[in-house]
Specification:
It is built from twelve helices and 14 strands. A six-stranded mixed β-sheet has the order 6-7-8-3-9-10, with helices on both faces. The chain has a four-stranded antiparallel β-sheet with strand order 2-1-4-5, covered by helices on one side. It is elongated, with a radius of gyration of 24 Å. A hairpin with a 5-residue loop joins β12 and β13. The two termini are 17 Å apart. It is an alpha/beta fold and 359 residues long. α5 crosses α6 and α6 packs parallel to α7. It binds adenosine-5'-triphosphate and magnesium ion (MG). Adenosine-5'-triphosphate (ATP) binds next to β2 and α2.
Length: 359
């Protein structure tokens, strides 16, 4: 059972869904400073959000892919989209990328309202890097990129390909057939392809799926450099440490949107603060030691053999706990604030969904 005794009530989940977004302002998009602020002539409001999604749903017949999803993503923000298999992540990307039509709800993508007639204009401003690269294996890297640049009807094809290959550090493999590249290198070609049209919004669908740690690290570095250049990135991932490292904010989807917020904000809001205490041996009467201390709301033995204390203010509680332990003759091995990971938040929400379904 993964549930922490310090978990707050589910109302926090509801509160978080309404949490204000806090994107870090981007510097400059790959497509130049003007690509994010290009005036829209398609009826879209030119506001601060690269993506505005309102009550969006998609069903395939009876099957609900995602339901009543609402969120916003700011320009220059890296937004992580997490969720278990079948949660609706890819379908959300495909819907916002105009590849499938939503069943209900509305969205604005790169300043343009999502609709069938606005599809070409939206696609000109975005790129999607799908989970599998889908490259022509017998064509060289450059030939692949030329082919896709042709489909996009882009100008300055040579210059764009060079810039994209430079961005993914692949200029030296430009003449190699894609079939001769490793999986990680093919992933980089796919990323270069996604950069060809200088997208205002870049959708990356599990960009590190199936990659080893070295190739994953390389893709992360690329995403970091894009983030530094102010590209808005919508990143779906199963890798929670990836989301934590790369994303300004994350959303957790499980058909419906469960949470949106900064990783640290989610941890703070979902979990009460706690102190981890480890002492040599065990305390004869922990209830007496911890029972009446300022800032300490409760205690329990932890799975690591120490004690976990629920605290309202660690700054008040920690010195009081240290004094009480010393008075009780305990040898303190460690006394530290508990750190909940994004994984804790994620697993807890998914656990809640599993339990809710059982009921
Ligand atoms: N073209 C389709 N026709 C019917 N059902 C579909 C179609 N595409 C997706 N679905 C269903 O919609 C749900 C969401 O699928 P989706 O691929 O969006 O999930 P996901 O979160 O990307 O999962 P994964 O982590 O496995 O990639 C699933 O139940 C899936 O079977
Ligand atoms: Mg998917």
């Amino acid at each position: 059972m993964r549930r922490s005794p310090f978990v707050r009530k589910r109302r926090l989940v509801a509160a978080l869904l309404g949490a204000p977004m806090a994107p870090e302002p981007g510097t400059q998009a790959v497509g130049g400073a003007d690509s994010a602020s290009r005036p829209s002539t398609l009826g879209g409001s030119e506001d601060q959000s690269a993506l505005v999604v309102e009550h969006l749903s998609k069903r395939f017949g009876e099957r609900v892919a995602f339901d009543d999803v609402s969120f916003e993503v700011g320009y220059g923000e890296v937004f992580g989209f997490l969720g278990p298999n079948g949660a609706g992540k890819t379908t959300t990307v495909r819907t916002l990328g105009t590849l499938v039509a939503p069943t209900s709800g509305s969205a604005t993508v790169a300043g343009i309202p999502l609709s069938a007639e606005n599809g070409p204009a939206i696609r000109a401003r975005i790129s999607i890097m799908p989970e599998s690269p889908g490259l022509y294996r017998r064509l060289t890297v450059t030939e692949n990129l030329e082919c896709f640049a042709g489909l996009y009807e882009l100008d300055d094809v040579g210059g764009r390909i060079e810039r994209a290959l430079r961005a993914v550090n692949l200029l030296d493999r430009a003449g190699d057939p894609c079939g001769s590249l490793s999986k990680g290198l093919r992933q980089r070609v796919a990323l270069a392809r996604a950069l060809l049209n200088d997208p205002t919004v870049l959708f990356l669908d599990e960009p590190t799926s199936g990659l080893d740690p070295v190739a994953t690290h390389d893709v992360h570095e690329l995403i970091v450099s894009l983030r530094e250049r102010g590209v808005t990135i919508f990143l779906t991932t199963h890798r929670l440490e990836e989301a934590e490292r790369l994303c300004h904010r994350v959303a957790i989807l499980n058909t419906t949107l469960r949470l949106v917020g900064r990783p640290d904000e989610l941890r703070e809001r979902l979990f009460n603060q706690a102190l981890e205490v480890r002492v040599r041996g065990s305390l004869a009467d922990p209830g007496v030691v911890f029972g009446d201390l300022p800032g300490v709301d409760g205690w329990q033995e932890s799975s690591s053999g120490g004690y976990e204390l629920a605290v309202s203010d660690p700054g008040i509680a920690a010195p009081a706990v240290a004094r009480a332990l010393v008075s009780a003759g305990a040898d303190i091995l460690s006394l530290a604030e508990s750190r909940h990971s994004l994984e804790d938040v994620y697993l807890q929400l998914i656990d809640e969904d599993v339990e809710a379904k059982r009921r």
